[in-house]
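Onboarding guide, step 5: your first structure request.
Type a short instruction followed by the sequence, for example:

Predict the 3D structure of this protein.
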Amino acid sequence: MTYIISSSLIFFNMIFAVKKRHKKFISFLLLFFMWILYWANTMNPDYVNYTNVYNEIQSGASVFDKSNYEIGYRLIIQAAVLLGINYETYLAILTICSFLLIHSTVKKYCQNYNYIYLLYFIFPFFLDVVQIRNFIIMAIFIYASKYLYDYSIKSKLKYIILILLASTIHLAAMFYLPMVIIGRNRKYLIHSVALLSILSCVFIVINNKQIPYINELAISMSSNEKIYNWLQINTNWGFLQSWFLQTASFLMMLYSRLMLKRKFPESIEHYKANKAVVFVELVYLINLMSFIYFPLYIFASTFARLMRNLLLLNYISFAIVNENIRGRNKLLFNVFVVGYVLVFFLVELYIPYSEGVLDSILQNNLIL
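The system replies with structure tokens like these:
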């Protein structure tokens, strides 16, 4: 049943994604289907871990006990336990709140929901079902991103507060704090940071993947086991895959930006005044800034989630471009978008996790 529903929703959303008139009802059906797949799932690689921590707190374990789960996430569970709800109800509420955060950004910049949620369903939705805490911090980051392209200290503070809040749910959110330097007049700084990151990666690889003083830093961080583990190099050459995928993301955003500049050639001020276009510029800078994660991919493949969490912002940008170009340019652009998403789907999901993730989620559901 789930395979039939999935195929049908993909087909209909694909049709309305490229039509002039989009069908919000069809896109919301897809969102509703994703919601059910999420909270009613009963088997995936991390399912036991998440249910165990919920059951522990439900049985009276202190939220301050040593755990692999950050205090913010455990406090959310504690609140659910005090309400007397079971794990599935808790996850249903948590998921819908996260989707609302995401949708608030989506609807602010683009009305082609069919396009955006179709791409998200293909990738990385199924991995988000497995990694619940990462999904929450992604939703918070997507919501917070609108505060980046602003001069005001107030907006920057809002972004910092939201990211710090997200870090209490998953510590990886801290790696989004450097994004706060993004601004309309800071392109030179962002380009410099990205270039330095790439050059540092070249040095690390040439130096046999040895980073000066990293062992001393890891020892000093030994009080935090998670950070200590992050600072231990655990990859061979798998980081090249992450480098390739992130470079592909940057090139797609560069392409998107160029397409919009062609659309608004008459006046650069007119180009900057368009809210949706400004958003594409912001996402381009975020993807440029994300080259700072290149060195992290050498440490562990788990850092690939930092790149993955940017994809929804990219999809919103692609939908904006799709709405603003016509004819041959539109066809060619969407061919590249489809190829881009399918590469992520195949390399990051289908080839390594087709049975463990895809089949587990589609075949094990309380409702379906």
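Each response can be followed by summary notes, for example: Residues 327-363 form the longest helix (37 residues).
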